[in-house]
Specification:
Blueprint (H helix, E strand, L loop, with lengths): L15 E9 L2 E9 L3 E5 L6 H9 L6 E6 L2 E5 L4 E2 L7 E4 L11 H10 L10 H8 L14 H13 L5 E5 L7 H17 L4 E5 L2 H7 L2 E6 L2 E7 H5 L14 E12 L4 E6 L2 E6 L8 E7 L3 E4 L10 E12 L4 E8 L2 E8 H7 L6 E6 L9 E3 L6
Parallel strand pairs: 3-9, 3-10, 7-8, 8-9
Antiparallel strand pairs: 1-2, 1-4, 4-5, 5-6, 10-11, 12-13, 12-15, 13-14, 15-21, 16-20, 17-18, 17-20, 18-19
Helix pairs in contact: 2-4, 4-5
The protein binds adenosine-5'-triphosphate (ATP).
Adenosine-5'-triphosphate binds next to helix 1.
InterPro entries: AAA+_ATPase (IPR003593), ABC_transporter-like_ATP-bd (IPR003439), ABC_transporter-like_CS (IPR017871), Mo/tungstate-bd_C_term_dom (IPR008995), ModC_ABC_ATP-bd (IPR011868), Molybdenum_import_ModC (IPR050334), Mop_domain (IPR004606), P-loop_NTPase (IPR027417)
Family: Belongs to the ABC transporter superfamily.
Protein name: Molybdate transport system ATP-binding protein
């Protein structure tokens, strides 16, 4: 289990170091975590304190006690009486609603973003940001003529052009339907991989954080329930018991090996072995982030035969954890890929499952839905 402090895995620059206490009416926020991730997701049920935490990082909430350090710059230190006001923090905000100026066109809205940044500190190139977000064809339009997804892309562009040290996104996709969300995910992925600005994303959706996050902080009733690399956190399904349990599971990296056109299939190479999925329109060699949900994995003591499932991976049980109710999480090591299967307590007993036991993981190919697969680059998991 990842520790509450989410210790960094290498000497990369620490993006966020938060250790605060704050009372807000009857609610008490007491959070301590560190993250070196390019995209840190703050996840938790409604009322768990995500927005309060984001507001404390952004300077909209002044914590009663503690420290907030962003990229080694101390923004809050109550003991030393440090509180950098929000306009000096160099932090960009993107909210659920785009909040663009209705009387300005897209270009003017974007340029407004850099208005408050001193000229010598302006590094983000207008053309680069416009290209990254795919909004070049919208520059002359007014916000009222844009779709919700386009508006959010402009809002992200405006925030980026202010040259922030950190971009805070508080449920930026919550007001969009699934189709609009799917349209905007690739832009957030590009931003994460090529934008050069670390992102903190508040989200309710496990599918969303599984696709986008490199680090995850799980909040529960104002406390950090767990924090660490996304692939590590998502494997502990009970952390997602209240919301999105069905979506929790393993994240692994795979490469497109070949297409089997006659069957409409694509074969991926993962550390664990070959995975066959419905045809993906990506060229051979493309690296993908693949999500294997814990509920979609069945365990077998012997190599199964005469089975319609295409994906059977050999592995070894690394640990078994209690999960909700009658379930247990069986953590697996399949050729270096860490998988997790959610099985009943009864199956664990009847099959004699125990750490060290060789096992076969049968993956229902349905687990590879298009939303579960996203292009990735080395080092983004
Ligand atoms: N100004 C305030 N005064 C008193 N209590 C507040 C105030 N603002 C928020 N709260 C309470 O603090 C708690 C945390 O709220 P917060 O908005 O941070 O949660 P959240 O995780 O972002 O929730 P959601 O997902 O619903 O947006 C809630 O119980 C909320 O009612």
């Amino acid at each position: 289990m990842a520790g509450a402090t989410g210790a960094p895995t290498d000497s990369r620059l620490m993006i966020l170091d938060v250790d605060i206490r704050h009372e807000q009416g009857a609610f008490s926020l007491q959070t301590r975590f560190r993250s070196d991730g390019k995209l840190t997701a703050l996840f938790g049920p409604s009322g768990s304190g995500k927005t309060t935490l984001v507001n404390a990082i952004g300077g909209l909430v002044r914590p009663d006690h503690g420290r907030i350090v962003v990229k080694e710059r101390v923004l809050v230190d109550t003991k030393a009486d440090v509180f950098v006001p929000k306009h000096r923090r160099r932090i960009g905000y993107v909210f659920q609603e785009a909040r663009l100026f209705p009387h300005l066109n897209v270009r003017q809205n974007l340029l407004f973003g850099r208005f408050f940044t001193p000229r010598r500190e302006r590094r983000a190139s207008f053309d680069h940001v416009v290209g990254l977000l795919g909004i070049g064809h919208l520059l002359a339009r007014r916000p009222s003529t844009l779709s919700g997804g386009e508006r959010q892309r402009v809002a992200i562009g405006r925030a980026l052009l202010a040259d922030p040290q950190l971009l805070l996104m508080d449920e930026p996709l919550a007001s969009l339907d699934e189709a609009r969300k799917a349209e905007i995910y690739p832009y957030i992925e590009r931003l994460r991989d090529e934008g050069g600005v670390p992102i903190v994303l508040v989200s309710h959706s496990v599918a969303e954080i599984a696709r986008l996050a490199t680090s995850i902080v799980v909040l529960s009733e104002g406390r950090v329930a767990a924090s660490g690399p996304a692939a590590e956190i998502l494997r502990h399904t009970s952390l997602f018991a209240q919301t999105g349990l069905a979506e929790a599971g393993a994240l692994i990296e795979a490469k497109v090996l070949r297409h089997e056109d006659a069957f409409g299939l694509t074969v991926l190479q993962a550390g664990a072995g070959l995975l066959t999925v419905p045809r993906l329109e990506r060229p051979a060699g493309t690296r993908l982030r693949v999500r294997l949900r814990a509920r979609d994995i069945i365990l077998s003591l012997r190599k199964p035969e005469g089975l319609s499932a295409l994906n059977v991976l050999p592995g070894v049980i690394s640990s078994i954890e209690d999960a909700e109710g009658a379930s247990m999480d069986v953590q697996l090591d399949c050729g270096g890929d860490r998988l997790v299967a959610r099985v009943t307590r009864k199956s664990v007993a009847e099959l004699g499952l125990t750490p060290g036991l060789p096992i076969h993981a049968i993956i229902k190919s349905i687990a590879f839905d298009p939303e579960a697969v996203a292009d990735t680059r080395p080092g983004t998991m």
